[in-house]
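User: Please predict the structure of the protein below. I'd like the answer in structure-token form so I can feed it into my own downstream comparison script.

Assistant: Understood. Taking the following sequence of 84 residues as input:
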Amino acid sequence: MYKNKAVDGRNNICGKNVARIRKSLNPKVSQRMLADQLQIQGLDVDKNAIQRIENGERFVTDIELVALANILNVSLELLTNAKH
């Protein structure tokens, strides 16, 4: 049987890190602001998609992952570190 979920049953391993990093930014960045930045980069991601990513309910493509890392100014390794 194939496993395409994280050990904790989430659909991604970056969502918790995206939420933590986003909330730690100064000035604060809302889910809508993050979605707007992704849309500027040409990705079809809205505020609800950010919420679902952070809650582990949505898969994240590699293209989205790279864009998130660039916008949040962090490494891909930090976003995909399941230990955070």
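That's the full token string. The chain has one domain: 15-79.
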